[in-house]
Amino acid sequence: MDKVFDPSELELADSRGDPGRVVEIQKLIQEFLGANRQRQQGIRAQLLEQGAWALPGLLNATYVWMNQLEDAQSQKLLSSLMADLASDNPAAVDLLFRDGILEAPFSIPRSISRRALDEINWVPDEANSIKLIQAIDKSGELYHTQTVLDLYALLLKRGASQDFSNALTKCKKWARNRWDTSGDLLALLVKQFPERAEQALSQVFLAVRDFYSDEDVADMLLSRLRPIPPVWLEEGVLLKVSLTVLRQMTSSRHTTVEYLWINAARDYKQKKSNSWPTIMKEASEAVQKSQMETLYRYWFRALADVAEIAYIQQLARADDGSWGINAILQLIFQERRNRLAKQALQDLKEEYPSRYDRASSLYAEITGGTGKGREGTQQDTGIGQLTDSAE
Amino acid sequence: MEVFLGIDLGTTTTLIGRAIEGEKAISVKVLPIKQKDGRGNEKELTYLPSVAYLPPAGELLVGLEAQNRGPEEDASRYIRAVKRQMGRRLLLPVVNLEPYKVSAAYLAHALKEGRYQLPLADPVFTVTVPASFTTNQRADTLLALREACAEINLRYPEENEGELFISEPVAAMLAFLNQEFEKPAAVRRLDLSKPSRVVVYDIGGGTLDLTIVYVEPRTTPVRGLEDIDIHVDAIGYYNPFGGEDLDLELAKALYQRLLEQFPELHDLQLTPEQRLGVRLQLMNVAKSIKEELSEQMGEKDDDLRFLDEGEEEAVYFSKEIRILNQLYALEGEITETEYREIIHDLLNNSSRKSLTTSLQDLLKKTKFSPDRLDGLLVVGGAARLPLIQERLRNFWGNERIWVFQPPDHAIVTGAAIYSYLRRRSPGFVLEEPAADAYYVRLKEKFDLILPANAKDKKGEKKRYELDSEASRLLLQIFAGEEAEAGEPIESIYPSLIHQGGTTINLGQTYPAGTPVWVQMRYAGEPGTDDHSKVPWIYVWVGKEQGEPLFHRRYSDFVQEAQNG
Questions:
Q1: A66 in contact with B at a CB cutoff of 8 Å?
Q2: Domain boundary residue, one of B315, B345, B375
Q3: Are A387 and B466 in contact (CB < 8 Å)?
């Protein structure tokens, strides 16, 4: 009963209802963006006092001042303000969703509203999900991928399987187009559906199988996944993804898979250094059991990358087969830049000359071939904005 | 036979008037409007309350019947002040109606009454809109009018669409000048043989509309309105502030009293619709208290003799407020002093929601002061309130302030007069600037695309470029004030409000740097049959000449939500 005079759905239908207030709030936001911290707090308090009545003005202000809102810090300040203004009022949350997301034509304002909705743990209900899906369905005709990404970020929160499949299809399409946003969407998918990470990663990696040696594509897909969740190493997700993908590759190689192992080892060792020795051992055993030579190489490369030269040496000593040879091969790759690797290689050469020779031949065979160079990734440039004429 | 009607489509009341030729001036009669009162009776009032009620099963009711039944039966389905929602892209909550459809119902009721009373006539009608109404709001009013005509089977004058409106302050000025012609020249408040500049202050139920009007004789001697030229010098910004805001403040105070009387209400959990229902009921009580207090203040001199020293007469109120199907008796008294305190901020503060801020802003913008103007004409329903008159007299500081009598008839009177003049005096022309200037959003800034007072009603054809390789173009329009001469465009940025826009399919991929020309102008292409005076927007890509790649009536264009 205490909220009888809070703004209702009618007052908060858009930013045009009370232009006078919108203008006053826009002036305050202009000042806020150039003010020192103390004054910013004063303005924040002033806006909070107005409650949800201030929200239309704040939303419109993000449209007007968006060029001053490119940095993450400013965006965060405004999104947290929006979240505070909207949190207790369903009509305000609806406005944030409608004007801030669905109808927002510009990406910076949309991103600020999305953060605000995240802050209040907003999850779309059935009706809002339908609106999001409709907007996504129109995406092919109208929107920049960044818009669609924002829409998915909200839609996937509800955890519906159908949304997962739909987003995965979109992600594969974007990845094939080499659009940067495919990495963002993949990250969203594995974050919202951790139990389906294996499926998401495998399918997207396979979608870019034609770019199997392209490091830029690997960066595009992996950079947003970091830090790689430790559970992927602990529960064998990485291994399953790798086997699924590499078995369907005619070249039996995929740089994205290789980089996934490297990044996983780096992130694990950094985040969970205590468990690392155990997981390293378990992963080694699992990879060895896979009987897949490409995977051996990726794992040894990952180990070398996290300075586990001694462990590689130990594995090389323990096996006379392809596993041990690939361990030596990795040390050959490392010898020029790593003094420890050079020493380990020297020792192995003396202890197991024939293994060393087989590894050397393999090295010559690999480095003699020519790999595909980098081709780069791109942003979706389908939608343009007007800019001043040079004339 | 032609009859000349004017309709004042107000936030709280809708009035219809008829103009006929008088002896010295045009004579206008405000027509009574028959309406059911919701209690089995039929009444005639000089106005139709601009309120509607959509019962859960039934048709939309308007006027007195809606006013009496809505708040009691289901306040969440009761609609008031819909004029404030015109031009907005929304459905009214619960009833799921677009605002213009509700306005159409008010217009249809008023026009039907006009037809009923004048069955054989061919009506020429004019509808009033606030001078500060934006294009979207005007376009919505046209839609309402079109729908109202269809509903009562009245021909919609397509060919005169652009003349169907008159802005409220200009209508008020016509009514005022018409009154002046009824008087002998010696006692007129304005010397009509000389140019004059007057601020029209129109405070209705929901909008405070300000206009500086310049009147000058076209010929001498000046015999009537047809011999006068009327120009609008300047328009204040759109300000949804009026009698409703006073009611809202009083309703808040009443709400506190209700909570004091029934503390258990603090713990009630209400849905947003139920909260809205309580608010509307309280506002209705507030409105009747305001009206009673106004009457009382107006009669103060007579009443004083019945009061002891120090004693102050109060308005007694008693009303049952329905909350979750329980009735709570709200009763008490409010004195003038208490009322003054409650609405103190609206009378005196410096935000846009006050009686004098927008007037001050308009004077500052136009560099006029009360001394350099010929007068302040005060009109509109809320101007009946003596407190408002008193505040304005204090602000204006001289005797040249005139309150039209009755203040809520000025606009309908002027509208009817305008209907008369545009048929009977073909030379009579009213040209009003638009309320807003329009801006296109470039990647790095805003650019003025259509000034409020565009020469020949056309914005310049502006050349831009695509910022990147693109097969689609994001075009977004904002409306706002215009920078003063010598001021940078950035000075008006805080006034810009997003109107809408679209993503244009370019049909092919163009490289970055491709030139794009954009133009906004008030007339559609010749032959498009668009007489609405709503601007159009045109876009050429790659080449400046020939058919534009995109052209659309602005009001349709902005209704397209980016993703909707």
A1: no
A2: B345
A3: yes
